[in-house]
Design brief:
- Among the domains are: 42 residues, Orthogonal Bundle (Arc Repressor Mutant, subunit A), CATH 1.10.10; 99 residues, Lrp/AsnC effector binding domain/regulation of amino acid metabolism (RAM) domain (Alpha-Beta Plaits).
- Helices cover 39% and strands 27% of the residues.
- It is built from 13 helices and ten strands.
- 38% of the residues are buried.
């Protein structure tokens, strides 16, 4: 089944512009104009419109492990009483471990993405965070990200600066995370170096695989319903084949959707076995799509914990429009 999106009124040229920027946010306007079959001025106008209406932010998708963060977690938090956004932001800024926090409605109240260089750093942060909110937290359900299949959560500047990379590369990455549309000349001026040094180090970061791609994420998501759901299975014979069928749903969508149906998919170890963040036109349609997936895994007695993301408290929305099969090697999903 192809999910047919209706949630954002974008003309054909805008959708091409959006897709090209999400696939490579440093692409030249003239290159986009060729693919969209329009003028460079039209592309510039469409970009301004997307920046305003969709909150388009140009950033970089990083390889967490090559950056030095070998331990990444997705955490479901249930609260017995509310915690203000200000308190959560203040707590998050005191450590380089949390990268993203969203308020949710459903089986859990908070979704947290955390990244640490080692288990000790993670445990220290978890202890501090939970102890500060001990009167508010009812349940803490962490799962380690084992295989990130699709999507990403943008890294915080503090995390990049705490990495073990050379000082200049950290500064360069931090600037790129804030705005990948900066030209070589603009980056050189900000960092007080030559453009040649910018080109050389940027090339190193790409060749090493630390930078997976320059991309863009929408901070005013066009989808009305964002549902995050965690699966837990009792693995039965034939599970691998059922996975292939389910993954086909993830990679099958309408061309040039204003945002991908699936923003993030990963296999986990811990409280849950798998997670997905999916974007829909409305909640009812969203849960119908999730029920379709659950039907596939009926033999595995799948259990689902799901919640609707109501707002992002800390970090950036991970929503974008990419060509999934071009951006990710989905052939490995068949293994």
């Amino acid at each position: 089944m192809i999910y047919k999106s209706t949630y954002m009124a974008l003309d054909a040229i805008s959708r091409v512009v959006l897709r090209e920027l999400c696939m490579n946010s440093r692409v030249e306007m003239t290159e986009i104009a060729k693919k969209a079959n329009c003028s460079r001025l039209t592309v510039a106008a469409k970009m301004k419109h997307l920046e305003k209406e969709a909150g388009l932010k140009y950033t970089v998708e990083l390889n967490e492990k090559k950056l030095g963060f070998s331990y990444t977690y997705l955490i479901q938090v249930n609260l017995r009483k509310s915690v203000s956004d200000e308190v959560l932001v203040t707590l998050s800024k005191s450590s380089s471990v949390p990268q993203f926090i969203a308020a949710c409605r459903g089986a859990f109240n908070l979704l947290i993405f955390a990244a640490a260089k080692n288990n000790i750093d993670y445990l220290r942060w978890e202890y501090t965070f939970r102890s500060k909110l001990r009167d508010a937290i009812a349940e803490w359900k962490p799962s380690q990200v084992v295989i990130p299949r699709l999507g990403f959560f943008p890294f915080q500047r503090d995390a990049i600066e705490s990495s073990d990379l050379p000082a200049f590369e950290k500064k360069l990455l931090a600037e790129l995370c804030a705005d990948t549309r900066l030209s070589y000349r603009e980056l050189a001026k900000k960092l007080d170096v030559s453009t040649a040094k910018i080109r050389y180090n940027l090339n190193l970061l790409e060749k090493s695989g630390i930078i997976k791609r320059f991309t863009a994420v929408m901070q005013k998501p066009p989808a009305k319903a964002h549902i995050v759901y965690f699966y837990t299975y009792r693995y039965q014979e034939g599970y691998e084949e059922r996975c292939k069928k389910a993954r086909h749903l993830i990679t099958t969508e309408e061309p040039f959707q204003p945002c991908n149906t699936y923003a993030y998919v990963a296999e986990l170890s811990g409280h849950a076995d798998e997670v997905a963040w999916a974007c829909f036109d409305d909640v009812v349609e969203g849960y119908e799509k999730i029920a379709e997936e659950e039907k596939i895994f009926e033999p595995d007695e799948v259990r689902t914990d799901s919640a609707i993301v109501t707002r992002v408290i800390y970090g950036d929305w991970p929503i974008r429009s990419i060509d999934v099969k071009k951006a990710y090697d989905t052939s490995s999903w068949e293994d």
